[in-house]
Amino acid sequence: MNSLKKILLGEQGLVVIFAAAFVIVSLFVPNFLTERNMLGLLQSVVTIGIVACTMMFCLASRDFDLSVGSIVAFSGMAAVMVSNATGSIPVGLLAALLCGAIVGFVNGIVIARFRINALITTLATMQIVRGLALIASDGRAVGINDPAFYQLALSRFVTVPTPIWIMLILFVFFGFVLNRTVFGKNALAIGGNPEASRLAGVNVVNMRVWIFALQGLVCGIAGILLASRITSGQPNAATGLELSVISACVLGGVSLAGGRAAMSGVIVGVLIMGIAENVMNLLNIQAFYQYVVRGLILLIAVLLDNLRSSAAGRRG
Amino acid sequence: MNSLKKILLGEQGLVVIFAAAFVIVSLFVPNFLTERNMLGLLQSVVTIGIVACTMMFCLASRDFDLSVGSIVAFSGMAAVMVSNATGSIPVGLLAALLCGAIVGFVNGIVIARFRINALITTLATMQIVRGLALIASDGRAVGINDPAFYQLALSRFVTVPTPIWIMLILFVFFGFVLNRTVFGKNALAIGGNPEASRLAGVNVVNMRVWIFALQGLVCGIAGILLASRITSGQPNAATGLELSVISACVLGGVSLAGGRAAMSGVIVGVLIMGIAENVMNLLNIQAFYQYVVRGLILLIAVLLDNLRSSAAGRRG
Amino acid sequence: MAFLEFKHISKGYPGVQALADVSFSVEKGAVHGLMGENGAGKSTLIRVLSGDQAADAGSILIDGEEQRYGSVRDAFHAGVIVIHQELQLVPELTVAENLWLGRFPAKGGVINGKTLIETVRSKLEEIGIDVDPSAKVSSLSIGARQMVEIAKAVMLDARVIALDEPTSSLSSRESEILFSLIEKLKAKGAVILYVSHRLDEIFRLCDSLTVLRDGKLAAHHPEIAGTTREQIISEMVGREISDIWGWRARPLGEMRLEAKDLSGPRLRNPISFSVRRGEILGFFGLIGAGRSEMARLLYGADARDQGQVRIDGAAVLPDDPKAAIDAGMVLCPEDRKSDGIVQGRSIEENIAISSRRHFSPFGILNPKKEAALADEFIARLRVRTPSRKQDIINLSGGNQQKVILGRWLSEQGVKVLVIDEPTRGIDVGAKSEIYDILYELAAGGMAIVVISSELPEVMGISDRIVVMCQGRVAADVARPNFDERSILTAALPDKNAAGTIQHQEHGR
Amino acid sequence: ADVKIGFIVKQPEEPWFQDEWKFADQAAKEKGFTVVKIGAEDGEKVQSAIDNLGAQGAQGFIVCTPDVKLGPGIVAKAEANQLKLMTVDDRLVSADGKPLEDVPHMGISATKIGETVGQAIVDEIKKRGWDMKTVGAIRVSYDQLPTAVDRVEGAISVLKAAGFPAENIYDAPQAKTDTEAALNAATTVLNKHADVKYWVAFGLNDEAVLGAVRASESVGIPAANVIGVGIGGAESAINEFKKPAATGFFGTVIISPKRHGYETALNMYDWIANGKEPEKLTLTSGSLALRGDYEKVRKDLGIE
Ligand SMILES: Nc1ncnc2c1ncn2[C@@H]1O[C@H](COP(=O)(O)OP(=O)(O)OP(=O)(O)O)[C@@H](O)[C@H]1O
Ligand SMILES: Nc1ncnc2c1ncn2[C@@H]1O[C@H](COP(=O)(O)OP(=O)(O)OP(=O)(O)O)[C@@H](O)[C@H]1O
Ligand SMILES: O[C@@H]1[C@@H](O)[C@@H](O)CO[C@H]1O
Ligand SMILES: [Mg+2]
Ligand SMILES: [Mg+2]
């Protein structure tokens, strides 16, 4: 009894609640727990999952990035257009990563160095970058010339598609960075108290620039995979991604006030979002009711987590 | 020289910069400074302007409301459907205000009483309420039976359309509430230091519930006016409103970290958003370039304000 | 007759029994001291009294009546006012608004702005605090903020007033104002609960005294007369401490730190001084004298207008605290809440934040080493906590201060240590431990700058004292010439301006 | 005086509207008038766009409205600003849902287009000799958009009439109107009915159907077992046809932005400059384009 309580109320409580929910869903929703559906589910959260890795750092350090959706679209476009133009896929991929990182870097410089509000800055770059993607492509989807590009998304390793592997690798990598490196700890410290961190010798400005640049780079990865999955660069792709990603993070216990983040939580947050969608479709819930159900699931998830942690007697 | 500096760097500096920009635009953009265009411009910001009034309180008290767009759509639908059903416009209006206030109240209760993160809660209600609006109308716009309903938006007083008057009245009213009432000061105090406010005996929970309820009510007003202007209740109306409103507030100097807000700033923020749109259309700027320009205007506005205030030697 | 009574109060937090069956009572019109080591439960008791936290068990009686309040508001209506250990002001509101917060003078919800300002102005004048009621609190120094907090208690007619370490950020001058206020309140018949780590104050002000240890009642003295310092100290810490200062002469070496013509936007007069290897230089002054400002300029925390800093002859660039740390200088800041603790993170992380770079190859952490470091300083500084994983925000104020000290004492290769108010809120037992560490570091060749508003402390541990007054160096006194009166005189601006609290932009 | 006309569209980022604008510009260049292009994603934006046009002295405008029920408001606004009004693509209706017949309109019927899609699918099923009972249909839906509902319902009505079992039609609701959302929704459907061998897919536009086709590829269904028919015929569809190997994206119903953009602009110009009122109603139709003949179809429609 007591050890059950400990597990439920511990740091990993959210994970446990999630696991319980998962078991219930598996039992009661037909077709849910099949290999095919699981892989489909995981593929559907690749974009959100990948971007959430760095958004976690961004939020942990008390920042905010609304431009991720645009960067994903823009770098996906870049990957396709440059691949087509040069005839070389690696060059295209490099270009996409570079584009993503540059936009992120610019975000970081404006926010950290010129001290402009992150919400406004990334809202601005969100529009600018989307505009650039539309201008570059004249608003049209750009097809991929070399079919080898599709292989990025279609290829499999041990029956699991490459994008899922990439997402898993990023989960592990960024989990490690968050918990076991100076970078991760500094990000959390900045979020906890930026001034105290600065006085403790953390180069707050550089850290923030790095985090945004990294976020951009990772959006580049997500953009490439997305382009490969939908076999074209689409300037309208990934609109509204920012809210989904931020929600997944917050759902996973990342504090918008900074200073609190855990990779396991974020993964759970991402999965909850994906499973909600998946199960509703499996259960054939009508489109309009899906809105309502999605909202309710969000609420219930945080409510449960809240009950759990207030039972544990922590202070807000 | 010195007094100029004082004006520019004072509390009202943003207003002064804005006024300067306004003069420049008036001189260089043809058709801008005509009565017709000014009225058109003001009408175009009625929804944002009205909702920004209460969003200001929400942000000032360190909260966040993403559900405003859905509430506007939902209460607009309610106004039309109830008017049609009962044949009485006043009953319809009342229903709309009630719907708005109830959703806001529920937001407030969940956030303040159950201590659920405001971002997640309002993201959830945003979807739930949008879903309800879609379900109620089966996803289709609902036309208004009684043409008198249009008069709300079409009627004029001293050549100025009623919705603009309502917006102006709300500006004055909420400006007064913010600066001269216990409610306003308590909202700022909660945002500035929630713990201190609680320890000083401010009923933080009630305040937050009230602010959300008020926000819902005001969204109801905006919803009614919108339905009347577009002569129908539209379940898809006002999507993305939340970001515009929050941007307008932040642009106007409201701090996302709470504790800082000024009505004059918010008005300027709202107008900047409206003018940007208006001028781009007057100048026939291409749609894709509009994204880029809109982003740049946002950036320049905050950058200017920042230069101003850092020249004034303030910190952080 | 007992006016305020605590009966069997208990309060636990996960892993900590903050209060265990505490019972005592206080007479009407008495000033009652509350003492105990850091984490002994003093603030918790006061939070229970204020209605902020509910006790797990026990009851409070005022004037024989059992109190059942569920909120701060209820406590306020019962006539209880509490000044908490951490400042509880809203920086964006004005002084007057802060003083009225929770009970604005209003008709139909509309605030009467004139009443608001005028009542505060006259009240502040009456009690001798010179602060502009319409100034934003964010523009005040910590000291001035503390005075505003205190004014809160005096503004209202309370039956019970509790003050949790009110003087920890006041210098003697301001403390005097507070003491006279306490006398006035006492004369009106209020009960005053007074928490402090300063024995002098306790003996001077209090009629009776309670000592807490590990959340339990360690001693209750209905009459303070007849008790001795040594007795109270041993009741607090459970052992004797003969000489808390413990200063011994040390050989001084080469010049280590040289600061030349330092000035900044808030410290207009250039300041120069230097410190030798092995030397402890004390900075003394009244609130707003400019000591903290000097320290921040020295460290590069604020931008310098001009001036150079050299360590062992090499110039330290002022671009960032990081540059200072790399050059071997560290600053332990004055305001632990805004500049010291990293909320939401553990004690362990708060200690290792700076020093971990020495043992994190390629930026990868060494968790064992961090844990060992944390354990070492938790033990040495007697941090009271269930675990090194505890979130620092859950520690008592003094224990937080110890952790921040631990952060800087654990740094390696430090040549210059600047500590602003090192023992603010720290208990007697830990104080002497901290002094011993400072002596040890100095003996190892470090140059140490200690800024303190506690004259006995500055005099007790410094080899030399620089007195600052209104942003200038007013005196530079070597240990043999230490003399309380002359140091105080040097610190005073001039007769007319005495007691003036300067406004300053802090805006953090 | 100089003729200035507005061209307001509901989704400025969509290639379709980009094309309409492009052809309107072409007409403007030929006749020497100005086109002011404004994107207006919702009713409120339409209102301010009309005000804006009035303020800058335009004489009339063409609109593809975000919602047909905005009709009375648009008409009133146009009158208030003394602007001539024509609609394109989607026809305005009054509060009770009847078309506003006074407003000249050029457009396509959403239901008709859907029916063309349905017919193309039925024909191909028969040609491939599949048994309808063994075929699954993915209805990629975005029900909050009325046009989208009309299109998919049009397709479904033809399928059912041809004997396609209603219970084999599965709903894949898109969370947004992009390919990724369609892909995710369709994947779930495919996995839920892992035993179904043959699939057909239809939806709001090419992007939606592409999502379903991508989903079929990702779960390993051969292209020959999939018939997806989209609507639109812009780049996303053409890219499919250009791929070296045929995909499950069988065809698309191309609607011509040329007539819609060029002719409406020209009509409006004639109305303003020469007082010649346009036809009250012009209906255009879509043409099915396949991998083999899309270039020809596009040429016939005046686009390339
Ligand atoms: N919210 C909390 N969560 C967990 N532990 C807490 C919390 N608040 C206080 N404590 C613990 O309760 C004990 C008593 O703390 P308290 O603040 O009352 O000490 P104090 O006597 O005021 O010390 P100081 O002299 O340092 O201010 C400490 O061990 C502290 O860590
Ligand atoms: N915004 C400001 N404008 C002008 N002068 C200022 C401003 N802020 C602070 N000052 C002055 O600069 C000096 C800085 O005070 P500082 O906090 O360094 O003093 P201190 O001796 O450390 O006292 P404390 O105990 O309050 O920390 C004071 O003389 C103060 O009056
Ligand atoms: O919304 C559609 C648009 O996507 C295009 O297909 C033309 O018709 C409109 O109704
Ligand atoms: Mg304490
Ligand atoms: Mg100081």
TrEMBL record, chains A, B:
It is found in: Cell membrane. The keyword Phosphoprotein does not apply. InterPro entries: ABC_transp_permease. It is a multi-pass membrane protein. Keywords: Cell membrane, Membrane, Transmembrane, Transmembrane helix. The chain crosses the membrane at residues 12-33, 39-59, 66-85, 91-112, 157-178, 209-231, 243-276, 288-307. GO terms for cellular component: plasma membrane. GO terms for molecular function: transmembrane transporter activity. The keyword Membrane applies. PANTHER family: ABC TRANSPORTER PERMEASE PROTEIN YPHD-RELATED-RELATED, L-ARABINOSE TRANSPORT SYSTEM PERMEASE PROTEIN ARAH. This is L-arabinose ABC transporter permease AraH.
From TrEMBL, chain C:
One of its GO terms (cellular component) is plasma membrane. Its EC number is 3.6.3.17. Gene3D superfamilies: P-loop containing nucleotide triphosphate hydrolases. NCBIfam families: PRK11288.1. This is L-arabinose ABC transporter ATP-binding protein AraG. Its main location: membrane. Belongs to the ABC transporter superfamily. InterPro entries: AAA+_ATPase, ABC_carbohydrate_import_ATPase, ABC_transporter-like_ATP-bd, ABC_transporter-like_CS, P-loop_NTPase. GO terms for molecular function: ATP binding; ATP hydrolysis activity. It comes from Rhizobium phaseoli. Signal peptide: none annotated. Residues 4-239, 252-495 form the ABC transporter domain. It is a peripheral membrane protein. Keywords: ATP-binding, Cell inner membrane, Cell membrane, Hydrolase, Membrane, Nucleotide-binding, Repeat, Sugar transport, Translocase, Transport.
